[in-house]
Records
---
Amino acid sequence: MFCRKNMFSKLLSRLVKFIIPLISIISPKVSVKILYRLCFKRNLNLKNPQTLNEKIQWLKLNLYNNDPLVKICADKYTVREYIKSKGCGSILNDIYGVYNNVNEIPWDKLPDKFVLKWNFCNGFNIICQDKKLLNITKVSKQLRVWGKSNKHLLYSEFQYRIKKERKIICEQFIEPTEGHSSLEDYKIYCFNGVAEYVMVCYGRESGDPKFYYFDRNWTLMKLSVDALNISDDFCFPKPKGLDEMFYYANKISKPFPFVRADFYLQNGNVIFGELTFTPSGGFDTKRIYETDLHLGQKLILPNII
């Protein structure tokens, strides 16, 4: 019985990944309503959205789908000019090159360590820590597959709808802080131009990651399952560079009702990662309902006539 259920679940998942993008082309609204129902077992409330997931759906359908600035800032390359325009160019990671396709990548001229990423959507990254061990043929094939993707259709994230301007970016590999086994990444939730909370992931390298929310004073907020189950005497040291991250998040989030500003810390130095306008596409099933509602109350949606 379990095997049959598992097979049915996999089949349903494949059908969803095939059918939902087709529906999204015709009607993004219908697409997100169907997917929301499948994910949360309840109807999507677009007339009076309450949770953060619901409000992200509203923003996707009513504002972020056609906002020129959102499109610029969702692009991992053009966002750099926006960051510079806010006087924050010093926190940008160095880039070695920008290419229109895989054939333009000068593999022999790249350093031993680097990161390759497409400028649209998330997850299309190649992290190279030793070029001698890199299978260039395999990596090139993967980059080509990603370059043809219309991943934005699955969650109707039309801020990622890029056709002619698709680029491959080669960035500097960011070494972890001394004494750390992995890179420190911080995701700051900004509501109506104000940076409120930072989400931190601990233990990712162990395969059992824990997610915690802190306010700008580094007070642990009981907003995740992991935080609810943590002992009262457990202490997370405040990271050096936290105040600077909130400062930059405030500056670059001003024009947007909601955005998540992602940063890295390296030995206390702040490095900009990206701006994420629709985390998890507005389908974050790992966030408990009370937290989703609490975060949703922080976001005041604009009136659109």
---
Amino acid sequence: THNISTIMTQDERWQAQYDQMMTFMNENHRRPSKHRLEEHDMLNWYKHVKKAIAKGNYPPHRIEKFALLQQVANKYRRKNQY
């Protein structure tokens, strides 16, 4: 049996991560938490993409899609409780 990540192209893997995070936020009405181990992969992917875009070395077609994801993420920004 092959590991699924070896069968998928980079674009397919990126899309899978994107879809997973978008689905998570739409279902849970929040961003992935750094306090929940099972959500770390999504959070790390999100932070990695943000840093790569800031460095200026990211494919334009992915930047456009990521902007939509950020709009949803910004809806669920953590609000200070005090």
